[in-house]
Amino acid sequence: MQDINPYEEARLYSPHSAATRDAWESMATLFSIIVSLEYLERAYVRHGVDDKTYAPACQRLLAQFKTLMKLVAVPESQSPNSVGPLGGTMDGPMPVRDVADFMQRYKMHHTAAAHRLAVGVPATVEHASSSGSSGDGNARERGKNIAETTQGFITFMDAVKLKMRAKDQLHPLLGDLMGAWTRAGGEQGTSNEARAKVLGWLIKLNKMAAADEITDEEARQMLFDVEGAYTAWFASLQS
């Protein structure tokens, strides 16, 4: 066993690897984002923050999480046993597959954050918070939100019809649609069941890797569900 000199200055990182330090810092930042998201979710559930404060904060944390996961996650095509620690030295962090792997490795029991990361959108979008413009008496703002929702539906359906299948092509469009739909009052009328189907597709896309693609059968079902949601939402505007 190697003798330890108690008078020797302890080094936090390998002296020859800046990449190792960057890797640990990325892991630490990812850890802090998950913890922050957990506290934000629980504060929102307990009415500690309102919708206007919660939504942008949650959206920002989700965006930061997605950016960091690209830095720390190992590609699906690469075996975790065939790669060394990040940074190329033995004192770097072990690679992770996804957020579930990361949370298990570092014993993070943050169920609220895990759910929000799986859904990929704030709770105000997932559950269509009733604080949207549909009930605030602002007809001009409501008209704008309805127009944006209509545009979102048409744009997404056109994308599917044009054979777009990759997650990085469809997820941003569907996320924009759900956001506009929420602002336009997506929780009202007869569109709740149809909305749940569209949300299910958003969650499915969120769990996929950027380059992953849905099958033609899935695309057909997705288009059917979105068209049904569009019809139900449009009908709810007449009531």
Automatic annotation (TrEMBL):
Domain VPS28 N-terminal stretches: 1-127
One GO cellular component, as annotated: ESCRT I complex
Positions of the VPS28 C-terminal domain: 141-238
Keyword check for Transport: yes
Main localization, broad class: membrane
SUPFAM superfamilies noted in UniProt: Endosomal sorting complex assembly domain (SSF140111), VPS28 C-terminal domain-like (SSF140427)
GO-annotated biological processes: protein transport to vacuole involved in ubiquitin-dependent protein catabolic process via the multivesicular body sorting pathway
Entry GO MF terms: protein-containing complex binding
InterPro entries recorded: ESCRT_assembly_dom, Vps28, VPS28_C, VPS28_C_sf, VPS28_N, VPS28_N_sf
Localization per record: Late endosome membrane
Keywords: Endosome, Protein transport, Transport
Topology class, membrane: Peripheral membrane protein
Primary role: Component of the ESCRT-I complex (endosomal sorting complex required for transport I), a regulator of vesicular trafficking process.
Family the entry assigns: Belongs to the VPS28 family.
Matches recorded under PANTHER family: VACUOLAR PROTEIN SORTING 28, ISOFORM 2 VPS28 (PTHR12937), VACUOLAR PROTEIN SORTING-ASSOCIATED PROTEIN 28 HOMOLOG (PTHR12937:SF0)
Name of this chain's protein: Vacuolar protein sorting-associated protein 28
Species whose genome carries this gene: Ceraceosorus guamensis
Origin organism lineage: Eukaryota, Fungi, Dikarya, Basidiomycota, Ustilaginomycotina
